[in-house]
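Support case: adenosine-5'-triphosphate complex. Customer-provided input:
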Amino acid sequence: MANIPKSVREVLETLTAAGHEAWCVGGCVRDTLLGRTPEDWDVTTSALPEETMSLFGRRALPTGMKHGTVTVRTDRGGVEVTTFRCDGAYHDHRRPDTVIFTRSLEEDLKRRDFTVNAMALGLDGTIRDLFGGREDLTAGILRCVGEPDKRFDEDALRILRALRFASVLGFRIEQETAAGIHKNRALLGDIAVERIQVELFKMLCGKKVLDVLRAYPDVVGVFWPEVLPMVGLDQRNHHHCYDVWEHTIHAAAAVPPEPELRCAALLHDIGKPATFTVDENGVGHFRGHAAVSEELADGMLRRLKCATEFRETVVRLVEWHDRDIPRTDKAVRRALGKLGERDLRRLISLKRADNLAQSPAYFSRQRELDKGETILDKLLAENACFSLKQLAINGKDLTDMGLFGPAVGRMLNALLDAVVDGELPNERDALLTALKHL
Ligand code: ATP
Ligand code: MG
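Agent response - structure generated as follows:
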């Protein structure tokens, strides 16, 4: 096992040379055994935090002394070195009340969440695996260390971590662990929304998002109860071969794995239950659902304290998802002006996924999307004008002509509209002449 990076190796060597035990632990061991590149390397050691601090001197930063964590700076980024610990009692389903440092690696591995996350890797390549983590890794099974019920009750964030790892790694959640998740899900209500957000978005971007969302809508429903009425809601409409939730999760799995897009797909039809009607022929309709989805999505993302830009992007995609895709130069230029290239491309992805999650009889819609996309590519290649920035005249030209105040913006926007609509060429002289007439 020669894959420990040199910078991490040196940290282990320094600790070992001073007579301490030191191991790589957790996600980095899991990912190495899976042949994935670990995001970061965590080290666990018998050295007390103060001992680590003095061993590494100026390279050591006391980043989490209460929990025993010291960050050691290396030429390849920081390595978190944490003292072997066992957790004291838990009272709020979140954090142990106390942490107790120990000189035993076994104790430290026992407190970890899942068997595949509870392995340690030594300098000589030895793997310490007390709970069958390697076997579970090979079989693709996510299993709690110890009794699931107790582990989720201690720290409810583990519920979402389980869903996240299952989705990202493509693992199956072992039966008792799954039962513990369902049983304890309400405890997620005690977890800070910022932490829920991080796990949720990672889960949404995983390769098995479809299976996870299908099996655990009740977990998502703890912080987003709006999703619950989608489950099993028969659309009673020939456009659809799935109920609203199945449609939603197929759409979510079919967009590229970007948090904004996955989130927009998850929320695009969130307004359907509230707008559902059945006509005299027994056909289901969801009139005005996009506007309701937009409003609900906004509230849901605010509740999770998502960043403003993120929320606005998702909400705009939800708002636009049900409009016809622009398929003329003029319509694409207008859409570009409103959304910009990045979000117009995202909208096309979302609409593709939305369509692919409907009855196959309507897959021909993909061709309309192809057409919109071809026009978009063409306009961008031509450097077509769709924003004020690109207009061949600017505010100064107008003030030079004696205009001032809000009239400047009004005129510029009127000229931009004319250019976008193809009524005027984006040429300085033509625009200045048109201005004189306005
Ligand atoms: P990644 O870094 O790829 O997201 P990871 O497994 O490294 O995944 P971290 O959050 O970095 O996850 O945590 C490092 C290790 O700490 C985990 O592998 C696990 O052993 C342990 N751990 C983290 N969070 C918990 C928790 N809530 N309960 C128990 N153990 C945990
Ligand atoms: Mg990690």
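The mean pLDDT is 95.

Case will auto-close in a few days if no follow-up is received.
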